[in-house]
Protein 1
Amino acid sequence: MRIVLCDTNRKDLEGYSKLCLAICEKKQFPVSLTTFSAGNALLFEMSERAFFSLVSILILEPDAGCEEVAAAVRQYGYDGIILYLSRSAELQYFYQAFDAKAYSYVQKGDLNRFSAVFESALDSARQLEGQYIAVSCAGEYRQIDVRDIYFFETAMDHMVRVWYAGGNFVFPSSLSDLEKRLGEYGFLRVHRSYLVSVGAVHRISFKEVVLNNGQAIPISRGNFPLLKNALDKLR
């Protein structure tokens, strides 16, 4: 999970960054946190689609040059969580937060409220994260709805190809890592080179799995009972 914090006040930037990391450590959420001390610097980075596609939570101080960031990143296509964190109580910032579909607005100094709101945002981000998988390779990226994925297959050393409703895409990963990450979302290893979405299976035999899109992939005999059992539970 990736968190971005933008604040022109360097003392606040450092303090709230430490607080966010402490909360994530307490909740055992592995995250990377990136900070920006100027709104234009953040906008420059987020103009690269591969950057904002991987951001889960964006925390903004709307004062002093950051007031346009929320609306701008929404225009870029960012659909993750936005938190407003400000010392100001001016209504214009509340309106901006509402217009940008912000998750919440927190006054600086109220650390208890910030901690509670941030923990809630983490839980919401984790749920959203499970619905999509963001992958990238050689400057290209895809943000794919997990429900649209048919299967993954080994493409070459340390590379995997994902087949989904929008086509296919090769990216650096391993089937073992994807199996650990997506197992709870109904993905099952049916062959040493294939990881399949159980919900995308049309029919199976001892030799192959036929998917809803008509593609057929091999299944190892040892994995046949596992897939059959998963299908029985699903149906």
Note: The mean pLDDT is 86.
Protein 2
Amino acid sequence: MVKKMKVELVKYTSDPERLCAAAALSCHSEKSMAELIDEISKEEIKSILKETMSRGHMSVIEHASFSFSIKDVSRSLTHQLVRHRLASYSQQSQRYVEIENPSYVMPDTIDQDEKSKEEFEEMIEDIWKQYEKFIERGVPEEDARFILPNATTSNITVTMNARELRHFFKLRCCERAQWEIRSLAWEMLDIVRNVAPIIFQDAGPPCDDCPEPDYPCERRGE
């Protein structure tokens, strides 16, 4: 069965922008962050964060963290995702979880071509039949999984702080990023912008200062 990605922000730092602004203000105040956090107004929060972040002092936004539940993405995506090392991950185990039904992600380039789609689905079905035969013969899940494809879906829990999220969005919202993780990145960005609009207002690919200007891109010049 072809699956569609589902992304939820399950937990995050309460009032993240107030916390980060208070932390920044405490660096230049006799008062502690705990004393400042309830004193600053919404306008002060906006001013402090914009000034601090514009100067490149991004460590203050590390105090805000965000935990996502990500469901029905391919193993191909999660292999890319866990390369972002300043994060915490808990992924569904193919060693302990027996996959009962074919569950996979199909790229649009294959889905839109009837012949390719048919061949893809036949191959997936054959792989799952063989996987089930291995399980029936007593082959452990941890060994039977060796034949499962990158298209196999997985669920993963991801926690990142705001600074690492901005770095993740910088790389993975870019048109050069692989399509599935790019889709995930944009969805995550839309979600956190609703929670912390000041911190993530300008997050995303650095199109105005593209590090790869020779790469053809439809977004350049927008």
Note: Strands lie at 6-12, 65-74, 88-91, 153-161.
